[in-house]
Fold this sequence. Notes:
Layout: H1 2-23, H2 31-55, H3 67-72, H4 77-98, H5 100-113, H6 116-135, H7 139-164, H8 172-191, H9 207-233, H10 240-257, E1 268-269, H11 277-296, H12 298-308, H13 310-315, H14 320-346, E2 348-349, H15 356-369, H16 374-390, H17 398-412, H18 425-429, H19 435-444
Amino acid sequence: MAVAVQDLTPEKSALRRLWERVQGPFLHVPMLSWLVGALVAVLIELSVGNNLARLIGLPKAPVLFGVSLILKEPVLVPAAIVYIVLVYLAPVALVARGTAGWANRTVAKLLDTIPAWVVILIHLLLLYAVLHFWAEVNTYRLLVLRLTMIAIVLTVSLNVVNGYMGEFSCSHPGFMALGAYGASVFSLLFFVDDRIFGAPILPPALGPFLFPLGLIAGGLLASVGALFVAIPSFRTRGDYLAIISLAFTFIIKSVIENLEVVGGPRGLGGQPDWATLPVVFAWTVLAVWIINNFVRSTLGRALNAVRDDETAASAMTVNTRRTKMTAFLFAAFWAGIGGGLLAHVLKYVNPGSFGLQALAEVLAMVYFGGLNSVVGSMVGAVGFNLLSEALRPLEIFKWIIIPVLLILVMIFRPTGLIAFREFDVLKIIRPKHTAEGDTDHALTGS
């Protein structure tokens, strides 16, 4: 056994040295440079993507980085790789590396002269520009992008309970349903001439401006529903929350199926297209910011104490029941917001959309990304959604590959890919080194 380990060690060292040589020139590239490079790449694709694709033998520009295309026609693998290198990898790498010195100096100067939140806002605007132009290629990308951002809201909110609080909740689909139907009824009742609710009460032109109120109403309705789970669950300890929350999800689904006023099992359609890309992006940023501040606050630290040892936390004057109920209602509110956005993206909502499959997906995203980590939840939501869409051509085999990947993650990374890591935005955007350091780095190649 010792011989085998010694034989593998040089190979591992060689691979590690190779990886260090590849990433070495990019270790000190700031986030601003990466965003500028990504913006250049998506603008190149938007301008010449289809022409370049046809030139190298592809029928059109790949929708999701070529994965779906090569799964349908494996013979196109070389052409898809060439496309990704020419359109994405090469422009991003060259621009990011070439602008690193300028970007570091710029960010350092901005942080010295203007408030940090303004610098963060500049980065967010650049990120939105990248996403906007990437989604301009076709409507499918736009749909995937909006659904992925909604998944981020749902995953980050569930991680408050399953990660930071250390409980196991199965009630998120129920909260999503309450938020989806609550926001939908608000929109259809007040602003749409609907077959169920009749003529609109308010002028339809006001709808897009008052749409946030509808989302908040859906979130509050979800929080009220969360009381019916939290009150009995947090009087006890153990696995009762998982049982009660799962029952709650089935109850909400059954109740909606028997309410003809909201369409019953047929569902409710006709929602206005108000959940546009900038609206979903703004709500996603707001959710991540508020939830991240929440888990880093005194209450968030109390949640961690309750998770680690509830008896010790109670002895240290932490009101454990109130802390858990507050966090649970807070998570339910954002699940309701996500459900409201989902209903207006799809422009249709059905009780069957909030069953076991929805529960399995959101739990998979949480545990795939990492517990007790906001950035882990974002990675889990983005990775799971893009992987699910990319593997769509495999049809039924997709639901074999994805569970196998999740099992491998649980075996080798039981807490998820990025667990127990704080999300510090300022640390991400800060300059990585000085201009002189950039020059020395380029000369030495280290």
